[in-house]
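note to self: dont lose this again. the chain is below, predicted strucutre after it. 227 aa total, dont forget to put it in the shared folder this time
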Amino acid sequence: MEARHKRCFSQWQSHYQKCQQAIFKAAEQCLQKRTIVIMGAGSLNDIPLDSLSQQFQTVVLVDLVFLKQARKTAAIYPNVFLEEADVSCRLSMLFKGELSLENETSWSLPNETDCLVSLNLATQLPLIPVRWLMQYYDLDETAADELGKAMIQAHLDLLESFQGTRCLIADRQVFEYNVSGELIDQFDPAWEVVLPDVTDSWEWQVIPLGESKQNTAQVNQVGVSIW
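---
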């Protein structure tokens, strides 16, 4: 992701800026500003960290892994904390080929959380686990579809169960174009799970022409829901 961001800076920077604006809007709606939690924090490029660190008493950034640059950036702020966690609470079971749709544990939000953000994460949750299971455990398409939907729905349920301000930034449609600019494929990245209505949306050129071995371009329609 970092390498592609450097190569595709002009196409990606607008997406990052719009993500920052969406998170800022969500923060503005908070009645209190004790703690904000951002799931899928990743590289931190799409997070308005300066603003959040000034507005909130505590900023908690969550992802499976944080690389060196993200750690270096977060270290600048004394009230910003990184938490490496599996918010799906399923990965250790799936790694062993256990397909139970029940979470093995529950991931707990920090106390006094006033804003919960899911950042370009919801539709990504099933992708690697499903590919893993299909490769190593011969998961069939029906079971893969069921698992993918369950993981996305569980993530939405986590957001819905939260009592504070919620912000979901997620892909809503994916479009693929050939070198002539003709649409050759499109699909629902949410696996037909119904996501909340959007308050804002934009197109993100995830894979410009020349980035793909198939010589195609991929454009994601990203939507924001704040409630």
